[in-house]
Design brief:
3-stranded antiparallel β-sheet; 13 strands; 48% helix; 469 residues; alpha+beta
């Protein structure tokens, strides 16, 4: 990691002038553009390229989940969209990107202060890049989800344009703040209620309160009730193949024992990536068990492990998720990370974008039994984690939720990008909002074609899918 970087310090007026000047090079109206070019890569081929480094027996589960619907396909197709966005207009200003900023990758979780906060919550693809790419992925996800819910074209356009407008207006607010004010800004449960209570319906408020109350019960003790049992006096993770499989069921006896022993070394490696106070906390837990876990749509097939640890007694469990970090899908288009460990890339990006991050967030590198070296990042498995039920949203609910996501994404970008230049580029009018709303509909059309291409590849036997898992 470079430590001698020279950082220019322009005045606010100079930064604003840069943003306004960028409109001439990249007019805001051009963000409506997206065209299918003759050399566009085959979307299924891009998915197969990713599959080459994943666990072979899990790849059919990924295809099965992605083919379930156009929105499910979109969730797993971050690489496809990154390839498509590479040729679109850009302002020239960068920020730390989520890289996969769709509706389902925002949600609630516990802050270290034990508040329920709302933020971006998936960073597998994070890298610095054009801020517009995150905005367009969020916008396209709203259009695609709206189609799945049966919204009219006008309802979808309203939802998308409102989310983008919220991003633009929030970026302008951050541009007027002092640096520390921007850094401390966050949306917790009370702030969400305060900001949106006057606009939400009684039913939406009821769902919000029910969802947050449920999330605050989703902790390590709840995870133990759901995922573990006591076997021979020792806590053990319960296998639920193929989604959760204990190490003893994956490897022959001797190899499983070797793997279990190696976990102590790996945990020491992970511990070194934590802050000193958190290293001390982790040292108060002892390792108990390990299982492989199948994770969300886009990550199915990457190696993910659930680690069970115990603290003061059997009633003090800690579940860690150790998830493989492969190169970001953005890397071919924006360049390699400054970090040589992709686990660290994820962690550093998450800390930069989130207002508050899991205290157990860390990374490690290990060589597997197959001789391959892999990077992982580690966090708590459950810590008040919650997400909105997109599959049941009405148009007004998705519009309101899109506003929350747009404002949150702006705050995440403002922490790392030049918020004054970006706000100046976006301006006070709705030119950018309307352009991205048009882009979202056009890209939703393409996403449907790509989804059909995957369905045809499955039907022809080109790829194998296991559905309903």
């Amino acid at each position: 990691m470079p430590t001698n970087k020279v950082v220019p310090h322009l005045t606010p007026s100079e930064r604003a002038a840069r943003g306004k000047a960028a409109r001439a090079e990249s007019p805001r109206s051009r963000h409506a553009e997206w065209e299918l070019w003759a050399e566009r890569p085959d979307p299924v081929a891009l998915l197969e390229e990713q599959a080459a480094t994943r666990v072979p027996e899990l790849v059919p589960i990924r295809y099965g989940r992605m083919v379930a619907s156009p929105f499910a396909f979109f969730r797993g197709a971050a690489y496809v969209m990154a390839s498509d966005l590479a040729g679109t207009p850009r302002s020239g200003f960068k920020a730390q990107l989520c890289g996969d900023a769709h509706l389902a990758n925002f949600g609630g979780f516990a802050s270290p202060e034990r508040d329920l906060v709302f933020d971006v919550n998936d960073f597998d693809e994070t890298l610095p890049g054009p801020w517009e790419w995150d905005v367009k992925r969020l916008a396209a996800s709203i259009a695609i989800a709206g189609r799945e819910r049966g919204f009219t074209a006008a309802e979808r356009r309203t939802a998308v344009a409102t989310a983008v407008r919220q991003y633009r207006e929030a970026m302008r607010r951050f541009a007027g703040m002092r640096n520390l004010e921007t850094w401390y800004a966050r949306l917790d449960r009370d702030a969400l209620l305060s900001r949106f209570e006057g606009e939400a319906t009684a039913e939406q408020l009821k769902v919000f309160r029910k969802t947050t109350a449920k999330a605050m019960r989703k902790d390590n003790s709840r995870a133990f009730e759901r995922l573990a049992t006591t076997d021979g006096g020792e806590p053990r993770i319960v296998s639920d193949p193929p989604l959760i499989v204990r190490i003893e069921d994956l490897l022959p006896g001797e190899q499983a024992s070797q793997f279990q022993e190696a976990m102590h070394t790996l945990l020491r490696s992970y511990r070194a990536s934590l802050q000193g106070d958190r290293r001390h906390l982790l040292e108060s837990y002892r390792y108990m068990d390990l299982a492989r876990k199948v994770v969300g749509v886009g990550s199915v097939g990457t190696r993910a492990w659930v680690v069970l640890m115990l603290g003061r007694d059997d009633g003090d469990p800690l579940f860690l998720q150790c998830k493989e970090a492969q190169p970001s899908v953005l890397e071919p288009f924006v360049g390699r990370s400054q970090f040589d460990n992709h686990g660290r890339r994820v962690v550093e990006g998450q800390r930069l974008m989130q207002a508050s991050s899991d205290i157990m967030l860390g990374w490690l590198r290990t060589t597997g039994l197959d001789g391959e070296t892999r990077d992982f990042y580690v966090r708590q498995l459950w810590d008040w984690k919650s997400s909105a039920n997109i599959e049941t949203m009405a148009p007004s609910g998705m519009t309101l939720y899109g506003r929350m996501c747009g404002a949150t994404l702006a705050r995440a970008h403002a922490r790392s990008g030049d918020c004054i230049a970006i706000a100046s580029y976006l301006g006070r009018g709705d030119t950018f909002d309307r352009a991205v709303a048009s882009f979202a509909e056009t890209y939703a059309d393409q996403n449907e074609r790509d989804h059909r291409a995957l369905a045809e590849a499955i039907a022809s036997g080109r790829v194998t899918a296991e559905q309903g898992i």
